[in-house]
Design a protein that fits this description.
heterodimer; A: alpha+beta; Arc Repressor Mutant, subunit A; three-stranded antiparallel sheet; two-stranded antiparallel ribbon; 3 helices; B: alpha+beta; Rossmann fold; five-stranded mixed β-barrel; globular
Chain lengths: 92, 267
């Protein structure tokens, strides 16, 4: 997973009291992210997982493996709800 | 012929020779209904009599028989049972409307679209006027909107089913609507400043809880009538609701089926 993390461009969203409220226009489903997921939503856009692992492990003094596992879990949860995903790497 | 010029552009409403438009205004949105069928025109005139308007420049709505169509870019369309609305910037067409209830439903859909850029929306809610201010009791079907309306003094209810909220003249206002549920009435075409929103919750006691911004948004969103599927429309709705929540208090109202709830609201 070395492609850039990106928000689903179809979604409408606003930050409310530090939390992201996201609406999926296709099915009018409303998602509300918790504090950690909201931070991820704000800061992960355009970054690769490797870049985020470096940043988190440096800022919070956690092992890279731990940071990677946590971020992968979060990204998987957001991906399952089709909120964020890793864009395929451009070739060439 | 009813071809009109709007800003130099002839709009695409087709000619309806001999069809006298019914001019109404709902939520300060002037509308001109072109209804050819007598069988539909008379009930419509009755239904919207309190909303009759003298403007001849209302947003044109032409009722037509059901036609097969191809979707053009930039237009909104929505299919509701056998009836369909096609909305363009210069006017709307209602296809396959066979009775006044279908007309009513398509008008609601139209208004959600027309009001959206004007900081307005329709909400599943009863609007009751007390001391010159509007109290919006909202919730999904069965929440108690009609119950609240039935417990309120005659003449104080602007709607028991669909509230129309709009920002105008520097404040949020509730407009009377012709859209009613069990309480069936002609409605009152007036607007009143909004005092507060009350999410209805039937309980064994009367109690009021103030909702946080997030809670209020979570409560209001599922109760807003909304038919657009574009991201930009949802962004506009979010912006509108958050603007409203910043200014108008939203509560959860626990209530029994009696008028005691006014005491906790007034407290």
């Amino acid at each position: 997973m070395s492609g850039e993390i990106t928000r689903n461009p179809k979604l409408a969203w606003r930050e409310v009291d530090g939390a992201m409220v996201i609406i999926s226009p296709e099915d009018s489903q409303v998602h509300e992210l918790n504090e950690i997921a909201s931070l991820f939503w704000k800061h992960a856009e355009g970054k690769t997982l490797d870049q985020l692992v470096e940043r988190i492990s440096a800022e919070y003094e956690v092992a890279r493996e731990t940071a990677r596992a946590d971020l992968e879990e979060l990204l998987a949860a957001l991906g399952e709800k089709q909120l964020m995903f890793v864009a395929p790497e451009e070739k060439g | 012929m009813h071809l009109r010029k709007t800003d130099g552009v002839v709009h695409p409403v087709e000619a309806l020779d001999g069809c006298v438009p019914l001019h109404i205004s709902i939520g300060s949105v002037p509308l001109s209904l072109f209804i050819r069928e007598e069988a539909l025109l008379e009930p419509a005139m009755r239904r919207y009599r309190e909303f009759a308007h003298n403007s001849e420049n209302g947003f044109p709505i032409v009722l037509k028989k059901r036609e097969k169509q191809t979707k053009e870019s930039g237009e909104f369309s929505y299919l509701l049972d056998d009836a369909k609305i096609v909305l363009r910037s210069q006017g709307a067409e209602f296809h396959g409307v066979r009775h006044e209830y279908a007309l009513d439903s398509l008008l609601r859909i139209l208004l959600t679209m027309v009001l959206l850029p004007q900081r307005g929306f329709l909400l599943h809610g009863a609007t009751v006027v007390r001391d010159g201010r509007a109290y919006i009791f909202f919730g999904r079907s069965g929440a108690g909107k009609s119950t609240v309306a039935s417990l309120s003094p005659k003449g104080s209810v602007l709607t028991d089913e669909i509230s129309l909220i709009r920002y105008s003249n520097g404040c949020w206002q509730a407009h009377g609507t012709p859209f009613w549920g069990e309480f069936r009435a002609a409605g009152q075409n007036r607007l009143v400043p909004v005092a507060g929103f009350y999410l209805l919750k039937q309980a064994t006691e009367e109690r009021l809880e103030i909702l946080s911004v997030k809670q209020a948004l979570r409560a209001l969103l599922p109760c807003v009538l909304f038919f657009a599927s574009e991201k930009s429309a949802h962004e506009t709705l979010l912006r509108t609701l958050l603007g409203l929540i910043e200014e108008i208090p939203c509560h959860r109202l626990y209530f029994r089926r009696n008028a005691e709830f006014w005491k906790v609201i007034a407290a």
